Description:
Number of helices: 2
Order of helices and strands: EHEEHE
Strand content: over 45%
CATH class: Alpha Beta
Number of domains: 1
Largest sheet: 4 strands, antiparallel
CATH architecture: 2-Layer Sandwich
Structural class: alpha+beta
Radius of gyration: 13 Å
Distance between the termini: 11 Å
Amino acid sequence: xxxxxxxxxxxxxxxxxxxxxxxxxxKAIIETSGGTVESLDKWGAKKYAYTIDHKTEGxxxxxxxxxxxxVPHELERQMQITEGFVRKMIIKK
Length: 93
């Protein structure tokens, strides 16, 4: 198993329940694929360095996990097709 870190941004305009649902969805993708989430840090609403889609802030989440090499690709695919998702960065530690 490899260790990964993903930092992603979801739209700040979503309700708290919708934000929690998205975070749980991405966590479940890792866990159902046989990976383990080591830490989940909700940074909350932060201002962007520049405007993205005419918005100035988003909700940041940092997640560290261990998984097989195929899981980050599936996580990235799911993030790209999810409504309310802004940006992501997945790195291998």
